[in-house]
Write a structure and sequence with these properties.
Number of domains: 1
CATH superfamily: HUPs
Largest sheet: 9 strands, mixed
Distance between the termini: 57 Å
Structural class: alpha/beta
Shape: globular
Strand order of the largest sheet: 9-8-7-10-6-1-4-5-11
CATH topology: Rossmann fold
CATH architecture: 3-Layer(aba) Sandwich
CATH class: Alpha Beta
Strand content: 25-35%
Radius of gyration: 23 Å
Helix content: 25-40%
Bound molecules: flavin-adenine dinucleotide
């Protein structure tokens, strides 16, 4: 079975800076980590490999430095990794990101299963998984909390919904997004970390994938960020003095006249 895990590099801090001209995140020189939800996606792929046999491809779109993050993924059990990186891919919204990842998937070739995290810790939209599946024309299910069994051409899973759990059967090839209930990700061993340092990461730029220039990066983005700002939290506090009765009376007055 061939599994592709989509792995996003995200800032390992809340202290991110925005480019004042383009209103995009400045990703260079920010400590970076594997998107926490994607560690569950990697772990699940590794568990499938251990149980059924599989070859796992890690796929990411990001800045050149994201290749180090893909090495971390290899140390966790991913077999091969591809980084889509090119100036032309920069500034992508979720539409352009999923289109570009789809081109990476096409370059990797036939697959049985794509696993994404539920959402990214920075963008947080949870759109990329479903959008990627739609672009590739394969079935998808979000919020997978357990893979019960994989058969030749289908997969039996549990899915979290607003009301509880659903038991579902998905025809393969398919894409799933996973939630953190699905497993407990393992830590890499010293040996696997050493091997991952030597692993080759395939780097693919715009000219290496059969992409339409009008559908990648800022140019291919259907949305544009007009402005970004940090919300200002105004806290008006008052101190109420007096006896307990006076305090209760005063507090009641304040609450009844408060403008909400
Ligand atoms: C309106 C808007 C405008 C934006 N403009 C910009 C911009 O100008 N510049 C900019 O840098 N960013 C921009 N972004 C952020 C950018 O869209 C996201 O970084 C990216 O599209 C992924 O979306 P997300 O973070 O919401 O991922 P989600 O959809 O929450 O991620 C779900 C899963 O998809 C997979 N995934 C997501 N992104 C990747 C990736 N890059 N590689 C591999 N797997 C991935 C992972 O498995 C992840 O767990 C914008 C976002 C929005 C909503």
């Amino acid at each position: 079975m061939k599994i592709i895990v989509c792995i996003k590099q995200v800032p390992g801090t809340n202290e991110v800076n925005m480019d004042p001209v383009t209103n995009t995140i400045i990703r260079e020189s920010v400590p970076a980590i594997i998107n926490p939800f994607d560690t569950y996606a990697i772990e699940e792929a590794v568990r499938i490999k251990e149980k059924y046999g599989a070859e796992i491809y890690g796929l990411s779109m990001g800045i050149p430095g994201a290749s180090e993050m893909l090495r971390d993924a290899i140390s966790l059990g991913v077999d091969k990794a591809m980084l889509l990186t090119d100036r032309k891919f920069a500034g992508a919204d979720t539409l352009a990101t999923s289109y570009t990842l789809g081109k990476g998937v096409e370059k990797i070739g036939d697959f049985d299963l794509i696993i994404c995290g539920k959402q990214a810790s920075d963008g947080d939209t949870a759109q990329v998984g479903p959008s990627l599946a739609r672009g590739l024309g394969v079935a998808y299910e979000t919020g997978i909390s357990k893979i019960v069994q994989i058969k030749k051409d289908s997969m039996h899973c549990m899915k979290i919904t607003d009301d509880g759990y659903e038991e579902i059967e998905i025809m393969l090839p398919a894409l799933i997004t996973v939630v953190k209930e699905i497993n407990v990700p393992r830590l890499p061993s010293i040996k696997s970390m050493k091997l991952a340092r030597k692993a080759e990461i395939e780097i693919a730029g715009f000219n290496d994938v059969n992409a339409d220039e009008n559908r990648v990066g800022l140019r291919g983005s259907a949305t544009q960020v007009r402005s970004t700002f940090v919300p200002v939290h105004k806290v008006n506090s008052i101190t109420i003095e007096g006896t307990t009765e006076e305090k209760v009376k005063k507090l009641t007055e304040v609450l009844l006249t408060a403008k909400i």
